[in-house]
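Suppose you are handed a protein chain with no further information: no name, no annotation, nothing but its sequence. What can you learn? This example shows the usual starting point.
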Amino acid sequence: MSNTTIVPSTAGPGPSGGPGGGGGGGGGGGTEVIQVTNVSPSASSEQMRTLFGFLGKIDELRLFPPE
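A reasonable first move is to predict its three-dimensional structure. Written in structure tokens, the prediction is:
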């Protein structure tokens, strides 16, 4: 079993930070952390980025145990 921690950028969720969106601009500050459990150990970092990319730009992605 694997755990994933995803830290979206400060642009926050929504279309502005997503693919094809306008990008940043938001001044809200703070760090948003999403922890996901029960991820297949065979899932790659790229698969996790693709799966959770709807959250906006992902600044940091950590997989445990490390690949």
